[in-house]
Amino acid sequence: MEPESQFKTDDFFPRLGPLADPDCMHDPIQLGDTSPELLRAHLSMMVRIRCAEEKIGDEVTDGKVKCPCHLVIGQEAAPTALAPHIKPGDKVFGAHRSHAHYLALGGDLYKLFAEIQGKNDGCSRGMGGSMHLIDRANQLFGTVPIVGATIPIATGAGLAAKMTAKGEIAVSFFGDGSAEEGVLHESLNLAASMKLPVIFFCENNLFSSHLHISLRQPSDSIARFAQAHCIPSKTIDGNDVVVLHEVTRTAVDMCRRGAGPVFIEAVTYRWRGHVGPREDTDVGVKRKDDLEKWRRRDPIARLQAALESAGYSDAAHLESLLNCHRSEVSEAWKKADDAPFPAEKELFERVYTPANN
Ligand SMILES: Cc1ncc(C[n+]2csc(CCOP(=O)(O)OP(=O)(O)O)c2C)c(N)n1
Ligand SMILES: [Mg+2]
After folding, report:
1. Which atom in ligand 1 lies closest to the alpha carbon of residue 275?
2. Contact at 8 Å (CB) between 172 and 261?
3. DSSP assignments along 244-261, one per residue
């Protein structure tokens, strides 16, 4: 009989370690040689996303929003960092928590708010709500609530990009919960076997609804599934926009030059409940204590602190960003509030494609 010690598990079960430890990484981030203009642009986008999310949360609380909204507050850095690398012809896909991805890619704030309010001017013409965002002009090809559902579609977009050979890529954003769907594993296998230009981008916020990852999986690192499929992967601090910017740039370059798929695991944490604006501190493993610590890993505050020490920003600069985005947000919300709903007769016309099309 073989000795048990010859059965290996350790190499194959990486753990997130400090990346998932809420006591770590509270310091300002390292700016490296990133230009001050780019850093300030990232700061501005993350503040814009947060202001929009806080507004949506307030309106949900006031009962003005009828569709479920999954807020991304605390997770602004990953979509912000990826977006500048995306070019016309690329195709980005998201999931149910995708307001930030829509905005980071250049989506129109008014059309987002109109969609959330079910209005005719919404980006899905008022028929989708918060979880069905689309903005093809800015390379966002769809977000859907079914967990894992856009992963194979992004993989198919990767196959199309490979066939047209113009250096275009596909990006699939998904959460740690998607790793419990078979379709992720099928997609990883296909993309690796066919060397498809797909970035599999896991925003691992350690939770799927109210369940912490330690209650759902034997390891907290989702990148282990990339390793199992021979896909190069990198697991990083998902609240450090500079690290994210560099890693996503490399991943995009690898995909564009035909190196095959790449897997990024960005470790982060959502501040609000799974759905809606409440903090939901009564669920999950130590969520109440952990949330307070994760707030100290705030992607915005850590960038702002680093910018202040480098002399690239100050309290007045942040204040002016907040004022500017808050007023844009409140104007866009008001405009969406005043906008008309779609006509009732259009209900089926917009949901189903006519048979002769
Ligand atoms: C196939 C499927 N199963 C279950 C659900 C219910 N559900 C909606 S969101 C969610 C959690 C997903 O967690 P994760 O992928 O980590 O994303 P996060 O909410 O953390 O951003 C679940 C289980 C669903 N929408 N689709
Ligand atoms: Mg999650």
Report:
1. 19
2. no
3. HHHHHHHHHHHHHTT---
DSSP string, 63-122: T---S-----TT--HHHHHHGGG--TT-EEEE-SS-HHHHHHTT--HHHHHHHHTT-TTS
Nearest ligand to the CA of 267 is 2
pTM of the model: 0.96
Q: What is the mean predicted confidence (pLDDT) over 162-174?
A: 98
Cα–chain-centroid distance for residue 77?
8
* Helices (runs of H) and strands (runs of E) counted in the chain: 12, 8
Instruction: Name the burial class of residue 222, with classes exposed (0-12), middle (13-18) and buried (19+) by CB atoms within 10 angstroms of its CB.
Output: buried
Backbone angles phi, psi at 311, to 5 degrees: 80, 15
Q: What are phi and psi of 94, to 5 degrees?
A: -125, -165
The β-bridge relationship of strands 207-208 and 211-212 is antiparallel
Torsion sign (Cα): 190, 194, 195, 197: negative
Mean pLDDT of 143-163: 98
Report the relative pairing of strands 207-208 and 91-94 from DSSP bridges: unpaired
| Domains of the chain with CATH codes | 34-330 (3.40.50.970)
Q: Which residues surround ligand 2, an ion (CB under 5 A)?
A: 175-176, 205, 207
CA distances from residue 51 to 7, 65, 122, 202 in whole angstroms, order as listed: 51, 17, 19, 24
Q: Whose CA is nearest to atom 5 of ligand 1?
A: 147
Least Cα distance to 221 among 243, 200, 209, 236 occurs for 236
* Contact criterion met (CB below 8 Å) for 69 and 231: no
Determine the residue of 93, 132, 147 to mutate for testing ligand 1's pocket, defined as the one with the most ligand atoms within 8 A of the Cβ atom. 147
pLDDT digits over 79-136, tens only?
A: 999 999 999 999 999 999 999 999 999 999 999 999 999 999 999 999 999 999 999 9
SS3 353: coil
